[in-house]
Amino acid sequence: MTPLLQVKGLRASYRGSEVLHGVDLSVPPASIVTLLGANGAGKTTTLRALCRMIATSGQVRFEDRDVSGLSTEQLVRLGIAHVPDGRGTFAGLTAEENLQLGGYVRKDKHQVAEDRERIYGYFPRLRERRKQQAGTLSGGEQQMLAIGRALMLRPKLLLLDEPSFGLAPLVVREIFSIMRVIREREGVSILLVEQNASIALGVADQAYLIETGRIVLSGSAADIKQNDAVRRSYLGE
Ligand code: ATP
């Protein structure tokens, strides 16, 4: 099957110092792929490089088309949505206004309201809090809002950066179980960056392990879970 996203030799630097040294990975259609790694390994940089928020080299193919030279906005229009670490919601706007903004590149404005309802279906808490300023939502609700806002773009690929960060285990479980529902109902693929390997491997189909800017291991999530080094270093066993 042709991958939805295929990345070859992705390199990125900050101020002349290279931190990604040729990352290769692929994401099949309608699947959840997790990129695991320790602090500073290059997970966030990989997502930033993929959506061209930083200068990169290497080949990126999306839906079997070379998109290496495209801008962030062009990639968004093709269906790649990024939910950055720190979530990036607009604190002074209400939850609903944030969702509305998520649909800004859409031409089919009449369907935007329908989509908002669908997102409230995934995250009923957002409906309850729709008139509340995003900055006053709980961490979990802000994460839900950030994912909801990205879904308003009707993406084919969601790049999620540490959705579990700083959240209580119960909320993390809730958000991760919705990821599966989203993948199943919308056929969206998710590239999930996580430090919490245990929960990420629970939801993912496939996994990659990155160490100091290089992929050192990849395979099905089930196989990676059984890997001795992963169990010792990332699963705390
Ligand atoms: P974490 O989970 O801690 O965010 P990560 O795997 O996402 O880790 P990155 O944030 O991608 O790691 O960082 C990779 C490397 O690039 C690190 O050495 C980091 O210090 C460096 N780095 C990240 N952002 C910048 C920046 N804006 N300027 C300079 N160096 C940076």
Automatic annotation (TrEMBL):
<dbReference type="GO" id="GO:0005524">
    <property type="term" value="F:ATP binding"/>
</dbReference>
<keyword id="KW-0813">Transport</keyword>
<feature type="domain" description="ABC transporter">
    <location>
        <begin position="5"/>
        <end position="237"/>
    </location>
</feature>
<dbReference type="Pfam" id="PF00005">
    <property type="entry name" value="ABC_tran"/>
</dbReference>
<keyword id="KW-0547">Nucleotide-binding</keyword>
<keyword id="KW-0472">Membrane</keyword>
<protein>
    <submittedName>
        <fullName>ABC transporter ATP-binding protein</fullName>
    </submittedName>
</protein>
<dbReference type="InterPro" id="IPR017871">
    <property type="entry name" value="ABC_transporter-like_CS"/>
</dbReference>
<dbReference type="InterPro" id="IPR027417">
    <property type="entry name" value="P-loop_NTPase"/>
</dbReference>
<dbReference type="InterPro" id="IPR003439">
    <property type="entry name" value="ABC_transporter-like_ATP-bd"/>
</dbReference>
<dbReference type="InterPro" id="IPR052156">
    <property type="entry name" value="BCAA_Transport_ATP-bd_LivF"/>
</dbReference>
<keyword id="KW-1003">Cell membrane</keyword>
<comment type="similarity">
    <text>Belongs to the ABC transporter superfamily.</text>
</comment>
<dbReference type="InterPro" id="IPR003593">
    <property type="entry name" value="AAA+_ATPase"/>
</dbReference>
<keyword id="KW-0067">ATP-binding</keyword>
<keyword id="KW-0029">Amino-acid transport</keyword>
